[in-house]
């Protein structure tokens, strides 16, 4: 483990927790404070501190990383900088911004362009794939199904590679197609399994919040997954949800409805 998101009553305690989990000292760590802790008054307004603690690579390790040309090396790059860019695009790019670089063409051609893009980037990762599309015109939604024998590599740790590809495909298709589709990129039944998992997380978190009468801070996740949990809990009259933090470490807070 090279990175850990730590939560504690104070910033100092959260940092120390992260250092202990990673087994490093402060000099060998890169620390990002997502949110400061607050004591509150008589138990009200209390807020936990959340920090991102990451191991620093020494110069020799950095040089070795730069020399990597394997699939693993490319995957790590994709789950790093590309994920950050993809999530920023997902969060910050609105219709007016996208339209500035828009090249509108026939929907079928645009869908094929995005399919080819997904195959091409997979090939650069050393993974052989084919892509099929499932278009729902009434909902303006398109699913790009990636077929491969290396599903795990395409999905990545915690779905990071697949999420990055989905965000980039969304922007590319928005710029190219006449119809403004919502894009889903899927491998096997990963999205279905992930959706079931998020629903379970939402229900368990809501139960905990109601039982303890304290807020729960979830791990950082992409915007479309946060929206899913928002949706699942929107009809729950006992809790409320909101997002805090900055991308790519933006996270969801579930708290008692006052």
TrEMBL record:
Signal peptide: none annotated. GO terms for biological process: cell wall organization; peptidoglycan biosynthetic process; regulation of cell shape. One of its GO terms (molecular function) is RNA binding. Residues 61-85 are annotated as: Disordered. Its main location: cytoplasm. Residues 69-82 have a biased composition (Polar residues). InterPro entries: Jag_KH, Jag_N_dom_sf, KH_dom-like_a/b, KhpB, KhpB_N, R3H_dom, R3H_dom_sf, R3H_KhpB. It is found in: Cytoplasm. Belongs to the KhpB RNA-binding protein family. Has an N-terminal Jag-N domain and 2 RNA-binding domains (KH and R3H). Forms a complex with KhpA. A probable RNA chaperone. Forms a complex with KhpA which binds to cellular RNA and controls its expression. Plays a role in peptidoglycan (PG) homeostasis and cell length regulation. This is RNA-binding protein KhpB. It comes from Carnobacterium iners.
């Amino acid at each position: 483990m090279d990175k850990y998101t730590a939560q504690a009553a104070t910033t100092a305690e959260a940092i120390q927790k992260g250092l202990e989990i990673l087994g490093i000292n402060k000099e060998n760590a890169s620390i990002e404070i997502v949110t400061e802790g607050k004591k509150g008054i008589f138990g009200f307004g209390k807020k936990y501190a959340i920090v991102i603690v990451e191991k620093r690579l020494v110069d020799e390790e950095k040089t070795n990383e730069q020399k990597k040309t394997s699939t693993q090396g490319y995957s790590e790059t994709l789950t790093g900088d590309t994920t950050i860019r993809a999530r920023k695009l997902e969060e910050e790019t609105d219709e007016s911004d996208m339209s500035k670089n828009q090249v509108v063409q026939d929907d079928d051609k645009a869908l094929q362009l995005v399919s080819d893009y997904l195959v091409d980037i997979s090939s650069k990762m050393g993974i052989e794939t084919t892509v099929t599309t499932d278009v729902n015109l009434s909902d303006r939604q398109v699913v790009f199904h990636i077929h491969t024998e290396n599903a795990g590599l395409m999905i990545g740790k915690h779905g990071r590679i697949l999420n990055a590809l989905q965000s980039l495909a969304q922007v590319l298709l928005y710029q190219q197609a006449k119809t403004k589709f919502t894009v889903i990129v899927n491998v096997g039944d990963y999205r279905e399994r992930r959706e079931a998992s998020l629903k379970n997380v939402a229900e368990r978190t809501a139960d905990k919040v109601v039982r303890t009468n304290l807020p729960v801070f979830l791990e950082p996740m992409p915007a479309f997954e946060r929206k899913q949990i928002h949706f699942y809990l929107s009809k729950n009259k006992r809790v409320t949800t909101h997002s805090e933090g900055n991308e790519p470490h933006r996270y969801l807070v579930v708290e008692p409805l006052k």
